[in-house]
Amino acid sequence: MHRIGAALGMAVYWASSSYRRHLQAHARLAGVPVPLVGSAARHAGRMVAELPWLWARPPGTPLGWRLQWENPARLEAALASGRGVLLLSPHIGCFEVVAQSFAERYGATRPMTALYRPARKAVLRELVAQSRNRPGLVTAPASLAGVRQMIRALRKGEAVGVLPDQVPPEGQGTWVPFFGRPAYTMTLVGRLARQTGCEVLLLWCERQPNGRGYVIRVQEPPAPWPDTDDPEAWARAVNGAMEFIIRQAPAQYLWGYNRYKQPRAQPAATENNT
Fold this sequence. Notes:
It contains 9 helices and 9 strands. The protein has a domain at about 65-250. The longest helix has 23 residues, at about 35-55. Helix 7 (about 145-155) packs parallel to helix 8. The protein is globular and about 50 Å long. The protein has helices spanning about 1-15, 15-30, 35-55, 70-80, 95-105, 120-130, 145-155, 190-195, 230-245; strands spanning about 65-70, 85-90, 110-115, 135-140, 160, 175-180, 180-185, 200-205, 215-220. A hairpin with a 2-residue loop joins strand 6 (about 175-180) and strand 7. Strands 1-9-8-2-5-3-4 form a 7-stranded mixed β-sheet, sandwiched between helices. Strands 6-7 form a two-stranded antiparallel ribbon. By secondary structure, it is α/β, with parallel strands linked by helices.
């Protein structure tokens, strides 16, 4: 599947000039070397090729040998504290594996609630919802009801997973730099952390070469989280943490995603946001 996906990724890269421009421009902002841009397109294709197997995999079938964990003791200590754990990952590697691997290892005693945005097409919405609801794993929609669901989970000492590098709806973010360019960034992470007193860690998945599976990495943020309720301070810290992860495996980040788009009713960034 990875070989097929790599070919698919390159085919789309050369067939779509708009996708190619987005990928090249965003990767250039982050200082990604030119040879890695093609590798990023191949990894995007691998991500697409993985999805049918991941979504259709029977709930009782373990990921097993496909997973390696790095620093799981840090995550286990956070879970044992009873405070609730907020886990952050950008769209890097096989990010769909992150929640499934957590549920497989810890879900029996500490289920994870994962934030997701429902698919626009009804046929995909049903498929994605069924694939992501697994033993030890529940999903929360990107809505007020979903936020309340996550707060309840954290206050019960459970885990919540968020991909904070997606563009939030208008009114739910702030303009702060992401690789030096203003990006509309969600303020949800800071709100959850301050309202629940949970611990915030980085949990992400790196795809291994030649079909050898995945490494799930548990990491501390590159700097302490802000000791403030200021949403902009939290958004800046979150983007800094996402940059920290992405620089470790830049070819596996989803550079083709339009991270810098402006929500319809949201005022554009100003010079103060750079």
